[in-house]
Every structure is written in structure tokens, then in C-alpha cells.
Specification:
alpha+beta, DNA primase DNAg catalytic core, N-terminal domain, five-stranded antiparallel sheet, single chain, 3 domains, 18 strands, globular
Length: 370
């Protein structure tokens, strides 16, 4: 495997895994403005503080040297894999019909109940943890790469309650208002794990009411962790990006909700229902019902079809507006910005005005005009 550093000139080493230099994309002149971080697997991630470009070593080869995906893989000595973009763009299918409810088992949405909120100790500790995780979002390379890797800006992360926890933390359960647990060995567990990764805080007027961490890929492989880990004591309520009184989009992922809020420039709010309408409390239900226009973008997979059955049963006024040429909005946005550009796949910024215009015509399916 060949290092990406072999293809970039004038890079200076800052640490064992971090290099910096002049951005080969925009040509910014700060010596520490363009950052390359080598991974334990021999791959690399990059980020530019000026043009805000970010990605992995293959994407950098494509952008700088104009190589195809396979050519970039060959230059770096990486085994190419089928990509979501290539598979879905080849299909060029842009309309997913509204799935019908199963005749034999129509879904009946549960009645929303008031949420059970965390205790004051938990909320205070969670708020302090979030403040720590949001420090240095513009200066810590790993935090920048994690946030910009999801096409979010540090400002959006700050605004939406997203932060970065660089390493596992073990804190007192009692300090968070949680009772000790009994371990498998019969001994009490007095510590609470706050895993490393992208921290997503769900907030309400009272403050931080839930914390979810998108765990590091290496920890998922070596420690057997789930992709997302909700911190014990969190309220079981959806994530909201935006404010009341705006058109509203239902999505499955909190990071997609933040991306929609950012790329719509505050014109479209979003609620992440986590697929199975997790914790649809009465306050969130009222927030959704009060929206002047309700759109829905479940994932383009089997789970998304189940989610849409549930969402449409709970909110018959919702208009189905799926992502184009990708599983979800995050993947669609990535595909729209990945070389070679497929003009049939829009970025989220391009997608939002299209679906709002479509929804104003009060239909039930959406297809982007080719």
C-alpha cells in the first residue's frame, strides 16, 4: 500500500500520524492549513481549513490528479470495492412509490405519551460533557475530520448539539444520578462509559435530555461496539434540528437532520425518528403536528419501508420525498459531491428547494427532474 504522502509535496510532520502543508486543492498558503492524518490501517484522511474540503486518500487522488476511483485505488495499492454511488447511479432510478400497508397487519401508531426526562444530576453532567466535547471543533484535526466527514460545519455542529469525544471516559454513575449496576462477576459497577466518537445531544427547553455517541470504526471492530450507543439515563425522545413554525422533514438519522438544517439555510427543520419512531413523546408529536408542511425521507431500504408505513400511519399528511440515487440524504449528498460528478444526483442544498416546490403541489411522491 502506497501512502498518500507520496503524491503530495512539501508536507511537514507534526506528530507520528499527523502531517500538514499547503492544500493541493485550493492552494491555501498556511503551512498548517491542510492536514493529513494517517490511520492505523495505513490509509489517510485529509481536511483543509480554508476550502473545507475533506475526505480519504482515494478521494484526494481523485480531486487532485483527476483519477477514476479504480485508478486512485491502483495508485495507492488499495483493493477497489463496489461503491454505493456506482451501484445506485447505474440504476438511475429516482422514484420510489409509496409502499402500501400490509393488508393482513395494518400498523396502528401508539398514542404519544409524555417523555420521562432524566434527573437534574444527569442533565447537568450531560450539559457539561457536551461543552467539553464542543471545545476545539475548529482546531482539533480529529474533530474537524469527523464533523466535515459528515459534510457539517463546526458552526452547525455547535448549533445542533454535536461534539467530539476523543477518547473513552469513565465517570461516576452517582455523579450522573444513576444507580450502580451489578456486573457479570457480581460486583457493583460504579462507572459510566462515555465512549469516544461523535457525540450527538438531544436538547429540549430544559437542556440536554439525551446523548448518543457514534462510536469509532476501530472500536466497533476491536471492542465489538454498536455503531451508535445511547448513554444510559437518556430520555427516549427524537432529535430535532431547527425550530417550530417551519416546514418539517422526518428522517431516520440525527446527522442527516443536522445536514438538512444546514443546507436549507434554516428554511427546513428536521426530526430524526430513528426509523422505528423511537420515543415519540407527546411534545415531539405536537411539534410535528404543528408544522405547516410535513415531508418524510425514510431510508431507501427495507427498514425505510417499514419506517414509512409507521410514519404515514401516524402522520397521514406527510408527503414522501425520498433521497435520489442513494440510501439516505447523507449518502446522496456525498454522491453528489464525489468525482466523477453524476448530474442526476443532487446535493441536499439542491434537493431541498425541489422537494419544497413539489410538496406545495400537494402530491405524494417526488422525482427530481433529469
Amino acid at each position: 500500500m502506497n501512502s498518500i504522502l507520496s503524491f503530495i509535496t512539501a508536507m511537514k510532520q507534526k506528530s507520528s500520524r499527523e502531517w500538514c502543508g499547503v492544500c493541493p486543492i485550493c492552494g491555501q498558503t498556511r503551512e498548517d492549513g491542510f492536514i493529513v492524518i494517517l490511520t492505523a490501517e495505513g490509509r489517510a484522511r485529509y481536511f483543509c481549513r480554508k476550502c473545507m474540503e475533506s475526505g480519504d486518500d482515494i478521494q484526494l487522488m481523485q480531486k487532485v490528479h483527476g483519477l477514476s476511483y479504480r485508478e486512485a485505488c491502483e495508485a495507492l495499492g488499495i483493493e477497489p470495492k463496489p461503491t454505493t454511488t456506482s451501484l445506485l447511479s447505474a440504476r438511475r432510478v429516482h422514484v420510489r412509490p409509496r409502499p402500501a400497508h400490509p393488508v393482513q397487519m395494518a400498523y396502528v401508531p401508539p398514542k404519544p405519551e409524555p417523555a420521562v426526562m432524566p434527573c437534574k444530576e444527569w442533565m447537568g453532567s450531560a450539559a457539561a460533557f457536551l461543552v467539553e466535547c464542543q471545545r476545539g471543533l475548529e482546531t482539533i484535526p480529529e474533530a474537524l475530520l469527523a464533523i466535515c466527514g459528515r459534510f457539517l460545519t463546526p458552526y452547525t455542529a455547535q448549533d445542533c448539539g454535536i461534539g467530539w469525544n476523543p477518547a473513552d471516559r469513565y465517570v461516576s454513575r452517582a455523579a450522573w444520578g444513576l444507580a450502580d449496576e451489578q456486573g457479570k462477576d457480581g460486583k457493583p459497577r460504579t462507572k459510566l462509559l462515555l465512549p469516544a466518537g461523535l457525540v450527538i445531544a438531544t436538547r429540549r427547553r430544559a437542556g440536554v435530555v439525551a446523548l448518543t455517541v457514534r462510536c469509532l470504526e476501530e472500536d466497533r471492530q476491536t471492542k465489538g461496539r454498536a455503531k451508535y450507543r445511547q448513554i444510559p439515563g437518556s430520555a427516549n425522545v427524537p432529535f430535532i434540528a431547527g425550530r417550530a413554525g417551519l416546514p418539517l422533514l422526518l428522517v431516520e438519522s440525527a446527522l442527516d437532520a443536522a445536514l438538512v438544517w444546514q443546507e436549507s439555510f434554516g428554511k427546513l427543520a428536521a426530526v430524526a425518528l430513528m426509523g422505528n419512531m423511537k420515543g415519540l413523546d407527546s411534545d415531539t408529536h405536537a411539534f410535528i403536528q404543528a408544522a405547516p408542511l410535513l415531508l418524510a425521507c425514510p431510508d431507501n431500504d427495507e427498514g425505510g419501508q417499514v419506517a414509512w408505513q409507521r410514519w404515514s400511519a401516524a402522520y397521514p399528511q406527510a408527503i414522501l420525498t425520498p433521497a435520489v440515487g442513494a440510501k439516505d440524504l447523507g449518502d446522496m449528498h456525498r454522491a453528489a459531491l464525489t468525482w466523477p460528478i453524476n448530474p442526476d444526483i443532487p446535493s441536499v442544498m439542491e434537493w431541498v428547494p425541489g422537494v419544497l416546490a413539489f410538496a406545495s403541489r400537494n402530491s405524494t411522491t417526488y422525482a427530481l427532474a433529469a
